[in-house]
Amino acid sequence: MAIRVPLLGLGETKSIAVIHRLDPTATRSFDPPGEPTSGYDPEFDEPVVYDSGTSRLSARHELPLVRVPCQVETPTFEHLQQFGPGIVENTALVIVTHRQDLQLLSLIDPATRACLIKKSDRVSAIERYGFPGVVQQPLAEDGLYVFEIRPGSWGFGPEGHDLEIIFLEDRAKAVSSKA
Q1: How far is 43 from 36, CA to CA, in rounded Å?
Q2: Confidence at residue 10, expressed as pLDDT on a 0 to 100 scale
Q3: What is the dihedral of CA 18, 23, 24, 25, to 10 degrees?
Q4: Distance CA 106, CA 176 (A)
Q5: Which of these, 77, 78, 36, lies nearest to 57 by C-alpha position?
Q6: Residues contacting 102, CB < 8 A, separation 6+
Q7: Which one, of 95, 99, 94, 97, lies nearest residue 114 by Cα?
Q8: d(CA 15, CA 31)
Q9: What is the pTM of this model?
């Protein structure tokens, strides 16, 4: 029998992350007006931005939003240091989710048991737990994007960890369009 680690606290410390998962297939197959013939930039491997005639639009297509129970953490300044050249962790927020909640929301792949929240998925709002639509934490206009997902609570739960730690930042990262 596995020991489970719950999200800490009751409703007062829980929040709801409103997550919009990137739909790579729809984004890739989208043909924006003009030169690009795909919704993905082949060099940067990210959704293209195109001119609609009146404004700039993104070719990004998303799956329907899902509200995920979570705990919100803010990283300390020391955790935001730059470590050498390359990718810099510029995390704005960290959300901690429980695999049981993700399972109930069909966000765990039944075959591989991998979390289906991926890099470049978007969090548009942090809502108050038990009050859908009541924004607890205002975010930038487009929201924040998933930078990295790490397992947490090692040694607990039937799969060896119960928590998924999701790092968010203000800009989407390149993600393989071959999904």
Answers
A1: 12
A2: 45
A3: 170
A4: 22
A5: 36
A6: 68, 108, 115, 116, 117, 164
A7: 99
A8: 37
A9: 0.78
Question: Do the beta carbons of residue 39 and residue 59 sit within 8 Å?
Answer: yes
Q: Sign of dihedral through CA atoms 16, 162, 91, 115? A: negative
Give the CB-side neighbour count of residue 154, counting CA atoms within 13 A.
Answer: 1
Q: Which two tokens stand for residue 164?
A: 């998924």
d(CA 98, CA 4): 10
CA distance 133 to 65: 13
Q: Encoding tokens for residue 90?
A: 């510029």
d(CA 177, CA 46): 7
Can you read off the two tokens belonging to residue 172?
A: 């989407």
> How far, in Å, CA of 175 to CA of 179, rounded?
9
Residue numbers in the chain where pLDDT is lower than 70? 1-12, 36, 75-92, 155, 157, 172-179
Q: What is the pLDDT of residue 174?
A: 56
Residue 145: its H or E element = strand 144-152
Q: Give Cα 7 distance to the centre of its chain.
A: 18
